[in-house]
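INFO  loader      accepted 1 record
INFO  loader      residues=226
INFO  predictor   begin
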Amino acid sequence: KEKIMSRYCPICETDHEKFNSFGYTPREDALCTTCGSLERHRLSWLIIKDKIKNKDITNNNLLHIAPEKIFMEKFTNLFNENYLTADLYDKNAKIKMDITNIEYPEESFDYIYCSHVLEHIQDDKKAMRELNRVLKKDGWAILLVPIMTKGPTEEDHSINTPAERMKHYGHPDHVRNYGCDYKERLEESGWKVEVIYAEDFLTPKEIELMGITKAAGEIYFCTKKR
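INFO  predictor   done
INFO  writer      dumping tokens
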């Protein structure tokens, strides 16, 4: 009996019967078994591809914070030696970087991709300002966080042990639950923010095919305020 392929990953361009479940609280149909992409990665990739299509990016560079393996080959192919991976702890990254104190001059990068990092950082607004500082005037950044509450961001710096953070924030390393004011936090830090939803440019059939469920969240596409 022939298998019915009802899922497609736009990153590794493979067909699947279905995606695997994934997460502390498992989400069905989330993880691509070929490349390991999750919902937010597939949505991000479609937007990145759209933003650079028909553009000469030969001399453009990309800063990738806390690099996900699934994107490293893709970004290397696009940017070659102009692709820089950075992390505070990951030894596989090209350079060690504290994004609250980036040791690069203003306007060093054309593009920045930073996904699910800021919820780990105590002074997230300082990190937002630093990322803004090193982005070129006509560049863009995708700065993603998990939005965990419909109200304002919840943070309490007295919650400081892995067990307490797990209890309050659902992850032992998270220092806050971002809420509906995340866009405003970015804007206060010098960003102009466009919030992009899958429904803005994909049909319901495409969304289902690529497994871009509500868990993908929205994409925060950021440029510098003029």
